[in-house]
Specification:
Elements lengths: L3 H5 L20 E9 L3 E9 L2 E7 L10 E11 L7 E3 L7 E13 L6 H11 L1 E8 L3 E8 L7 E6 L10 E2 L2 E2 L10 H4 L6
Antiparallel strand pairs: 1-2, 1-6, 2-3, 3-4, 4-9, 5-6, 6-7, 7-8, 8-9, 10-11
Length: 195
C-alpha cells in the first residue's frame, strides 16, 4: 500500500498530521472513526490493512440503524499513526479544520481464512467488505458495499441487524431527539392544510 497520494496532498511543515506509519506488535487490526469538521463536517472511517489505514469519508457519519445506508467515499490511504491523530489542521492546508477521535477499537473480517489483510484486500477488490467492529460506540457486524456507478470510490456503509443494532434515527450529530420529530395528535390533524 502506498502513501504517495497522502504525502502529495500535504505540506508537513505546515500541518501536525503524521507523515509516517506506526509500528504495531498486535495481530488485532484497528479501526478509527474521526469527526472531521473541515469545509464540510464529515466522519473519516478507517480500517487497518497491510500497514496503512484504508479510509472512507462518511458525510452523515456511521449509524447503528440497519435502515441507514450511509454514503462512504473512498479516499487515499493514511499512515497507521493517523489512528491517534486529533487536533487542528491549520487553514490553508488540505483538510483544514478540527479532527476528533469519535470512536476506535479493533475489527475483524467476517470471513478470515488465515490472513485478515489478504481477506480484506480481496473483499475491497470485489466491492463487498463484511467486518465486525469492537469499538466503544460502533459494535457488531457492518458492511462496506461499492456502488455500481462510473466512480468506483463511492461505497455504502451499512450496519447489519444484530444484538448491537438499533432503530433510532441518527444524523451527523448523533441521535435525533424525539422532541425534534414532529408528531401530530389526531385532533391536530384537522387543522392541517390538505396537501
Amino acid at each position: 500500500m502506498s502513501l504517495s497520494l497522502y504525502n502529495k496532498k500535504r505540506n508537513f511543515k505546515n500541518t501536525p498530521e503524521p507523515f509516517k506509519g506506526a509500528k504495531r506488535s498486535s495481530s488485532k487490526k484497528i479501526f478509527v472513526v474521526q469527526r472531521h469538521d473541515a469545509s464540510h463536517l464529515h466522519y473519516d472511517f478507517r480500517l487497518e490493512v497491510d500497514g496503512v489505514l484504508k479510509s472512507w469519508a462518511v458525510p452523515k457519519g456511521p449509524s447503528m440503524n440497519p435502515r441507514d445506508k450511509r454514503l462512504a467515499v473512498m479516499v487515499e490511504d493514511h499512515p497507521l499513526g493517523y489512528a491517534k491523530f486529533h487536533g487542528t489542521i491549520p487553514k490553508g492546508n488540505y483538510g483544514a479544520g478540527t479532527v476528533e477521535i469519535w470512536d476506535n477499537g479493533v475489527y475483524e473480517p467476517v470471513e478470515n481464512n488465515g490472513s485478515a489483510d489478504k481477506e480484506v484486500n480481496k473483499e475491497i477488490k470485489e466491492g463487498s467488505l463484511k467486518f465486525i467492529l469492537h469499538g466503544k460506540k460502533l459494535k457488531g457486524s457492518f458492511a462496506l458495499v461499492r456502488l455500481k456507478d462510473a466512480d468506483e470510490k463511492n461505497w455504502l456503509l451499512i450496519k447489519h441487524k444484530d444484538e448491537f443494532s438499533n432503530d433510532e434515527e441518527t444524523n451527523d450529530k448523533g441521535k435525533i431527539p424525539s422532541s425534534s420529530k414532529k408528531k401530530l395528535k389526531p385532533d391536530q390533524l384537522k387543522d392541517q392544510p390538505d396537501s
